[in-house]
Specification:
It is a single chain. The protein has helices spanning about 1-25, 30-40, 45-55, 60-70, 75-100, 105, 125-140, 150-165, 170-190, 200-205, 210-220, 230-250. The protein is mainly α and about 250 residues long. It has one domain (about 10-195): Vanadium-containing Chloroperoxidase, domain 1, CATH 1.20.144. The longest helix has 25 residues, at about 1-25.
Amino acid sequence: MWFKLSCLRRLWPALLLSPLAFLLAISPDCNRELFLILHEAGRVAPGAFWRLLSVLGDWPTVLALLLALSWRRPDKLPALLAGCGMGVFLAIVLKAGFAEPRPPLVLPPGSVQLLDDLPGNGSFPSGHAMASATLASFLYYSGMLRRGVVLTTVVILVMLSRLAIGVHWPLDVAVGALLGWAAMYAACVWAWPRGWPEELSARVQMALLAPLAGQLLWLLYKSGSHEEYALRLALCALVLAAGCWRWRRLRQV
């Protein structure tokens, strides 16, 4: 019994998402109808609410937040790099391989109220759902936040935001969240579980500030058209400033 309960505690996201993903995969009509229902239900909240929620599934923003979290748990830096690398790789390869059209390109005109710019890549799987699940899994399996209900709620809200905005099918977000969880769970279990030497981890963390600075410059160059742009910019700038301050303190020690 102990073994079974232990497995349930570790693998409950897969037990929750796998049946849903399987059902939607074998029933395209169900996938389409569920999208229309949830997309219509999403109109009870303003578009700004869903766009701001989606920031928690934006890969550049999630990577910046994960870097900041690794300062608290430097022993989990290898897992962070492996899990994120695996997640980004899967998102790129699967989107290019399936090239699934997004809802506004398939459904009759007027069926979808698009709340944001339509991405030009494939719909399957959802990169936002994957990134948010990766962030939640890192928090949970690194022991920084053991409130699974809270983390699950946040991931579900990000998944719903992609449906409300009108850019993803339910199957996209279910599989995306499943892959994001699996990538980070596997990394936390098998990718150098005891971490790297302290000096190496500190050097890698400092080196990661360079791409973060590049991301900030890119955000400043490519101004956004909605309110979530300011949130992305603020989070990136805050993490970069904190990282530079931390690097300066380490050099003075």
